[in-house]
Write a structure and sequence with these properties.
Pfam families: OST48_MD, OST48_N. It is found in: Endoplasmic reticulum membrane; Membrane. It is a single-pass type I membrane protein. The chain has about 450 residues and is an alpha+beta fold. The chain has 2 domains: about 20-280, Rossmann fold; about 285-400, Immunoglobulin-like (Sandwich), CATH 2.60.40. It has helices at about 1-15, 40-50, 90-100, 115-120, 170-175, 255-260, 270-280, 415-435; strands at about 25-30, 50-55, 65, 70, 75-80, 105-110, 125-130, 135, 155, 160, 175, 180, 185-190, 195-200, 205-210, 230-235, 245, 265, 285-290, 295, 305, 310-320, 325-330, 335-340, 340-350, 350, 360-365, 375-380, 390-400. It has an 8-stranded mixed sheet with strand order 2-1-5-6-17-16-14-10, covered by helices on one side. Strands 19, 20, 22, 23, 26 and 27 form a 6-stranded antiparallel sheet that branches. A 5-stranded mixed sheet has the order 21-29-28-24-25, with no helix packed on it. The structure holds 2-acetamido-2-deoxy-beta-D-glucopyranose (5 copies). One 2-acetamido-2-deoxy-beta-D-glucopyranose binds near residues 146, 147 and 148.
């Protein structure tokens, strides 16, 4: 409990300058620094949340991601799909090291993307469509007035993931989504619980090959991505809880696309980008837990080991960091397993809403299995949109001592009776044999 409060305390005071739990330093990589004016609304959003955003050209030789094994930034925005390399010698291993150290990434692709960026995405199992392809939709499209092209490649996407941890402003308000998107599609090359599609196409959306700037050929790229399995925006969470968001086009982050739809009642690009960046930069959907308290229900004392069939109580406090503050975490599916190779007990923990507190206490009274050995008490809680939680305690369960078994069992009374009957019979028989003069005749 003390550790838990301490962690909350430290988390609260050391990061009070930024909302993110992992830090406030953002590196934004653009093709040229002067392009930053095109992203002013998005950068403004980040600055409002107290991030310090370092805007650099992707080719800037002075960029370094880390020094002496420490990350120099907490989050990176890759907004330069055409960049063939970053910095002086930033390569895939150094970017992966950044992620291994807990750094988060928001990555934007585009129709014209360098091989380096394709390789970077594929490190996380994300396969972007071939170069020069584009997502189009003949029904849900928007004619950008400033553009003379007749291509219907500004798609109005509405197929959002209904995950309340990632897109809280969408799921809470149930407002009509209208996301303006221009770019390329992607898919995952592996079925994993770490990836999650956030925005995908509708039935009329397709990915096609771009023959020239203003014309689209009708030949679809070889993967033939279309409809709901065509991802426009998706996220990936690594095992160390670093988060990477993939956006199929830089355009949707720019002011022109944000400005198309600014109505408050519509869930548009601005709100979507805010939710997405908050989640990616650890401002939402982060779980924290106390170390569990395990004690004997009878005397409320924690022991090093327990005996078979003891009644114990397991309890753990869990809180969720949501939109920049700690809140009590509520869920009906937190499972505890008591296992020795196989689970002997698998049960759901109950919680009572704590009201104003920053956490909920999840609790269960359990009768230990009638089996002795070294058991693992384990909670593995992996849910999309939340950081992975694994809580493990190793606790031996001992057999009863020789003097702890019950002395007389009611089930054994027939056997006791038969023994005494036998004894009595022997005494009577012996007496008759010794004293009765007629018995032996
Ligand atoms: C959870 O919080 C309650 C209330 O503050 C406290 O009594 C309890 O010891 C905590 N449990 C754990 C496992 O830390
Ligand atoms: C940003 O920092 C200022 C000054 O430290 C603080 O007053 C403000 O509440 C912070 N904003 C957010 C969104 O954390
Ligand atoms: C659109 O066409 C007009 C006239 O043909 C031209 O002046 C303008 O630059 C074009 N705009 C774009 C974005 O290509
Ligand atoms: C829901 O919408 C109302 C106005 O329409 C707004 O005041 C409120 O902050 C919104 N709530 C969330 C969680 O976005
Ligand atoms: C990850 O991607 C695969 C392949 O597209 C998909 O089948 C799977 O459902 C995704 N995982 C989650 C948690 O959505």
């Amino acid at each position: 409990m003390l550790n838990f409060l301490l962690a909350l305390f430290i988390a609260f005071f050391s990061f009070s300058s930024a909302q993110s739990l992992t830090g406030s330093r953002i590196l934004a990589l653009l093709p040229e620094t002067k392009i930053q004016t095109q992203y002013s609304t998005f950068f403004e959003q980040l600055k409002e949340r107290n991030y310090s955003v370092a805007i650099k050209a992707g080719s800037d030789k002075s960029i370094e991601l880390g020094k002496l094994g420490e990350n120099l930034y907490d989050h990176i925005l890759f907004l330069c799909p055409k960049c063939t390399k970053y910095g002086k010698n930033i390569n895939l291993p150094s970017i992966l090291k950044f992620v291994k150290n807990g750094g988060n990434i928001l990555f934007a692709a585009d129709s014209e993307m360098s091989q380096f960026n394709y390789d970077l995405a594929s490190e996380f199992g994300v396969v972007f469509e071939t170069k020069e392809s584009a997502v189009i939709d003949h029904t849900h499209y928007y004619n950008v007035p400033t553009s003379n092209s007749t291509i219907k490649d500004t798609v109005i996407a509405r197929n959002l993931n209904f995950n309340k941890h990632i897109l809280p402003h969408y799921t809470d308000n149930k407002s009509q989504p209208e996301i303006f998107f221009k770019g390329i599609a992607h898919q995952f090359n592996k079925n994993s619980y770490m990836n999650l599609s956030i925005l995908s196409g509708s039935l009329t959306t397709a990915s096609v090959f771009k023959a020239s700037k203003d014309k689209l050929s009708v030949i679809p790229p070889s993967s033939q991505l279309s409809g709901y399995n065509l991802n426009l925006v998706s996220v990936f969470q690594t095992l160390n809880n670093a988060r990477i968001a993939f956006i199929g086009g830089t355009e949707m982050l720019k002011d022109i696309y944000i400005d198309i739809q600014k109505s408050d009642n519509i869930y548009g690009n601005s709100k979507f980008l805010k939710d997405l960046s908050m989640w990616t930069f650890h401002e939402s959907g982060v779980l924290s837990h106390s170390s569990p308290l395990i004690y004997k229900t009878l005397d409320k004392i924690s022991y090093e080991s327990y005996q078979i069939k003891d009644s114990i109580t397991y309890q753990v406090n869990i809180s969720e960091y949501n939109q920049g503050k700690w809140t009590s975490f509520a869920a009906n599916d937190v499972q505890l397993e008591i296992r020795m190779l196989d689970p002997y007990i698998r049960t759901t923990l109950d919680y009572t809403p704590s009201g104003d507190l920053e956490f909920n206490t999840f609790k269960k009274v359990i009768t230990l299995p009638d089996k002795y050995g070294v058991f693992k008490f384990q909670i593995i809680y992996n849910r999309p949109g939340l950081t992975w939680v694994t809580i493990t305690d190793t606790i031996p369960i001992l057999p009863l001592r020789h003097n702890q078994f019950p002395r007389f069992l009611s089930q054994a009374y027939p056997y006791y009776t038969s023994s005494f009957v036998l004894l009595g019979g022997f005494v009577i028989l012996s007496a008759l044999w010794i004293f009765s003069p007629t018995f032996n005749k």
